[in-house]
Amino acid sequence: MKGRFVTPGKTFEAVDPRTGEVITRVAEGDTEDIDLAVKAARHAFDHGPWPRLSGFERGRIMMKLADLIEENIEEIAALDTINGGKLFAHGQVLDVPGAARTLRYFAGAADKIHGTVLKLSKGLQGYTLREPIGVVGHIIPWNFPTILFFTKVAPALAAGCTMVVKPAEQTPLSALYYAHLAKLAGMPDGVINVVNGFGETAGAAISAHMDIDKVSFTGSTEVGRKIMAAAAASNLKPVSLELGGKSPLLIFDDADINEAVNIVFGGMFFNKGEICVASSRVYVQEGIYEKFENKLVEKAKSWVVGDPFDPRVHQGPQVDKKQFEKILSYIEHGKREGATLLTGGKRVGQKGYYIEPTIFADVKDDMIIAKEEIFGPVMSLMKFKTMEEAIKRANNTTYGLAAGIITKDLNVANTVSRSIRAGIIWINCYTALDVDCPFGGYKMSGFGRDCGLEALNQYHQIKSVVTPIRDSPWH
Ligand code: ADP
């Protein structure tokens, strides 16, 4: 079975969100297929070369995979566009090069994994070994099928782990291509096992599996909770969870309004609002509120929604019908709760899952649209008076993934950054991310950090080795 594509009996549809039409059918993995994949990964971990190679050799194969990805940028970007509705232009310059960069970053770290030397008490000395944690289960969401695949896979590979990867059922295509490219790059059989399938079946089989040593998940808070429960009820495997958000962006009176409007727009509507850090709660200080609101509405008029292959388009279709309907129902909630619809609020066209960039004003902190993660192009605009009030309201959420501050006052920027309980704070920018930047949540946005060298730690066990020093006069 190892090292080749197999065809389980069942298949499911991969759909093009531009039209709602079926692109192709994909093999659907279920519990037994996850089991086979885990067996392959287990064998590759317990007996195969990958964990036993030098870090340098692992890094070399990862570098080769990065090269192959770069050689196929157009094809990969096109897969995520036809299947995920993502902008083709972004795929070409952000997602796919970002995946190659992530592989290279962790490839470079693979031969720099060290333990520490311990000077223990009386007559003992010791050291720590950083060992790969074992077989990892990665459960990937659909909003960044390429970047998030490698955000999870690359540090686990560098650490020497083997793995089973389950892409989201909405976006199964590009991951199959990565399995193919990994083989071409010389990745030993059984190291990366991609199984497409649904969350309640294939995903649940991963989190409950007795022979998976760790699960790394990105997705909704609700599913994160199920994964943690399944891990607790099976072999107590550690989990890392990167979950939802309802991130605040605070704009102070001294901000450059045009610049702020651009940052806010990008923060909210980038990737059609299907991004866990979306700046969905925008708090504007009262002195500039009116001007800001007018400019924001003006900006919405120049925002083009349409075919994600068209280079003039800013926003493609939502990923699928379910998501599309969920977003439209949140918009109805907003109207019913008494928020003022400033712009947007409707679907675009009659075909596919396109939605206008939507902005609500007069939003109260306790309205559903201000509290729940919508995961679509819907912004809540609110007014504040003082910094203290803004901090309090920004923190008034169960989430803690990200926050933004726009001000020229360094003191305000520093105070607010330290006061907001979130995993990343952006000052005078938003969604500025790099593989070197640890990324993860506080509160119900999860725990564990993807990216940066912090991510490597998630895939290691620390072993202490202790030995006596006989006849030493030094105690
Ligand atoms: P969204 O709600 O944004 O669609 P999810 O959190 O449901 O995102 O999905 C993210 C990933 O989690 C997908 O790969 C999905 O198949 C998987 N998933 C969904 N439900 C479960 C579950 N019960 N156990 C494990 N994985 C799941």
TrEMBL record:
It is found in: Mitochondrion matrix. It catalyses: an aldehyde + NAD(+) + H2O = a carboxylate + NADH + 2 H(+); octanal + NADP(+) + H2O = octanoate + NADPH + 2 H(+). Keywords: NAD, Oxidoreductase. PROSITE patterns: ALDEHYDE_DEHYDR_CYS (PS00070), ALDEHYDE_DEHYDR_GLU (PS00687). The active site is at E242. The keyword Endoplasmic reticulum does not apply. InterPro entries: Ald_DH/histidinol_DH (IPR016161), Ald_DH_C (IPR016163), Ald_DH_CS_CYS (IPR016160), Ald_DH_CS_GLU (IPR029510), Ald_DH_N (IPR016162), Aldehyde_DH_dom (IPR015590). It comes from the Eukaryota. GO terms for cellular component: mitochondrial matrix. Homotetramer. This is Aldehyde dehydrogenase 1. It comes from Herrania umbratica. The lineage of its organism: Eukaryota, Viridiplantae, Streptophyta, Embryophyta, Tracheophyta. The gene is LOC110410821.
